[in-house]
Amino acid sequence: MQLGFVSAILPESTLEEVFAAAAEFGYDCVELMCWPQGKAERRYAGVTHLDTARFDQGAAEETLALADRYGVAISGLGYYPNPLSPDAAEAEGAVAQIRSVIAAAAVLGVRRMNTFIGRDWKLSVDDNWPRFLQTWEPIIRFAEEQNVQVGIENCPMLFTDDEWPGGKNLAISPAIWSRMFEAIPSTHFGLNYDPSHMVWQQMDYLQPLVDFADRIFHVHAKDVRVDRRLLDQVGILAKPIEYHTPKLPGLGEVDWGRFCSVLGDSGYTGPVCVEIEDRIYEGSLAARRQALQLSSHYLRNFIPRLPR
């Protein structure tokens, strides 16, 4: 396995500065954010370290040369919108950018693109299903043509009133993943697995590593602390942000030694990328860089650095 981080935590940094930080803090790889140029609509969104709208073979060669200069690989390209939004313009733009990111991953030779399925949060899973099929069957066919694996992150995107009650991402549970993969059985369609989302949803975060071993293309390393006192006050039907807090790996409830053990036993040999959303470390660039350093130091106990 390779240890990396998600570049969204360094929005003000250039691509070279992202690679330099990865090298400085002992990371093997980076997941590069590929939002279209424009204003962010939520935290950790709108970050563009690779602009796919202006990406060709020359740009790919420059990007790979820069990565090689710092001895850092690109684990995948990331873009996390809502392609099933009830706003038709938003959905169409998201789908177009997903296809653009897939194409860029192919040109780079990275072969991994990570995103969300999306959801109309006001509708049930069943009522979203026709649009899921209509939207995602063509996307996955395109990914097959480009020989790029699409990894879907399992975050419910259920934090604010605007995302209530269903959240903005269908792919939140093993039951739904099984239904997705049965409907679209492509080997280019899988998961970007984050155990923290399983923890606050009160689900086993280890068993999916076994049950979906052949579908895990990429992994996010984010921890979470569930405040049981608050949960007892508001209950599971409250907005999740009312009772849980994202944390750095090792500061929450995920047993990372056991997680990496089961992940390795499942046959996974790919990237594990730290996703920093711990608000304690969001106050400054220096604090966020410290978070990267602390996370690398901790996870190297379980993911040793590979010889170059």
From TrEMBL:
> Which Pfam families does this entry report, sorted A to Z?
AP_endonuc_2 (PF01261)
The protein's matches in InterPro entries, at most eight in alphabetical order, are given as: IolE/XylAMocC-like (IPR050312), Xyl_isomerase-like_sf (IPR036237), Xyl_isomerase-like_TIM-brl (IPR013022)
Q: Which SUPFAM superfamilies match?
A: Xylose isomerase-like (SSF51658)
Q: What is its EC number?
A: 4.2.1.44
Query: Residues in domain Xylose isomerase-like TIM barrel?
Result: 19-287
Q: What terms describe the molecular function in GO for this protein? A: myo-inosose-2 dehydratase activity
Q: Say if the entry is tagged with keyword Nucleotidyltransferase.
A: no
What keywords is this UniProt entry annotated with? Lyase
Per its record, how is this protein called by name?
A: Inosose dehydratase
